[in-house]
């Protein structure tokens, strides 16, 4: 190799080395660059009061929460009312959110942190919009940061078991905003049922319960004459006695019910074919009519309607004093107002079909015989014993 060739090789090696160094510097610069600082707000200019709609998008699901006529609703459930406290807490977390640790990361590391949009990866995209539909902010939630139990270490990328104590996120698509926060956002799930307002109707001071099934022999009604009275089986047949232990669930039926989800569209229309019907009357004048249809081993489809029949005027007591009249009239009007407000609120539930757990309606789907006391076991009459006789005697002879 001559001097000219050697010089050329040296120049080429230097050039390649320089290009490699430059590429490495650019890569390192991109990896190290970060716009966030420890303790700073993740969304410093987040206009929480302007948010009128937000969506949570994941790989195979999406949930949209929107404010309509000052009421938050769940779009995927035909705008059923959403849980306001859950929503306000969710928005407040983003408004207060601070950086627990800036994360220097390059594009190749985003997959490990699950900071890839749901159309291409495992990220959870939260998008906030104002009343006009304009996007205010978008945040991509990535892997949860997991901490081991006592004595264990940390997992920097969310693995290794333990419990979540934070989450990786990115504001918009800006890789320089990647950070770890101390909020895991466990409820940031595209599950419409989780966002529903589960406050529901409540049956108080039950007076009677009647159930009609597809078989007349399984129909039943139990009732009592006063709030402290004994429950009795209506139109009891010979040999039928109500077992108060077996019927205790029915006598407190729907006193504090809840539901799991709301059916929509064709699912709701086909959900109540040949249901069991129930009527629950209260001493306060409310009448609840319910329809129940089994959907699977753990759940039932359910509809409810309510009517009210309340006295509009108070009947004065026999020995009522004049000085007590105004007080008693006011108490009566206040109670009437509360009843009418309760009726208005609960009447709104009649247009929906709900999914309830088995235990919620179990007492109302019992057959008639399941409420009855067991019949006492029949005792067989004792068999007659033959007359005792001495050896060698014939029956009926007297001993000598």
Polypeptide structure, described:
The chain is 20% helix and 26% strand. The chain has 400 residues and is of the alpha+beta class. It has two domains: 48-194; 206-314 and 329-371, no CATH class. The strands form two sheets. Strands 1, 2, 3, 4, 5, 6, 7, 8, 9 and 10 form a ten-stranded antiparallel sheet that branches. It has an eight-stranded antiparallel sheet with strand order 13-12-11-15-16-17-18-14. Strand 1 (53-58) and strand 2 (61-68) form a beta hairpin. The protein is elongated, with a radius of gyration of 36 Å.
Chain-wise SSE layout:
Blueprint: H1 3-32, E1 53-58, E2 61-68, E3 71-74, E4 80-81, H2 84-96, E5 101-102, E6 124-129, E7 135-147, E8 154-155, E9 163-171, E10 179-181, E11 206-212, E12 220-223, E13 232-233, H3 248-251, E14 261-263, H4 265-269, E15 276-282, E16 286-294, E17 299-308, H5 322-347, E18 353-357, H6 358-361
Antiparallel strand pairs: 1-2, 1-6, 2-3, 3-4, 5-10, 6-7, 7-8, 7-9, 9-10, 11-12, 11-15, 12-13, 14-18, 15-16, 16-17, 17-18
